[in-house]
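lol ok so funny story. i was supposed to be doing the assay writeup but got distracted and ended up predicting the structure for this chain instead. priorities right. anyway since i did it might as well share w the group, maybe its usefull for someone
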Amino acid sequence: MYTLKSLLGKTFYHSIRHTILFIVGLFSGFNAKANFIGTFIITYLSLGGGFLFMCLMLGINPTLVMSVIAAPIWIFIVYITNKITKIIVEHKEKENEDEVIRSE
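and the output, tada:
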């Protein structure tokens, strides 16, 4: 049997969930921006981690790689990450459009 405490907790959870979904529904481009930011972060961490691992395997001092000396390299990684993220997001959008066309 449900206790009053669990019943109130579930009611509170559902009311908060519906409120958040309503607020998110007010912003039309929220999902696209969140998708872009998430893809950017995953791509950046992958490229940055791969670069750091490569430098460690080549015997380069990690302090130098993370310091000001390697700043142009990190700027380049951010630039490349932005380009790759745009390609990935466009591919996802095109794939979703093709899927909608096939299902009709």
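The helical segments are 4-26, 30-57, 62-66, 71-103. Residues 28-103 form one domain.
back to the writeup now i swear
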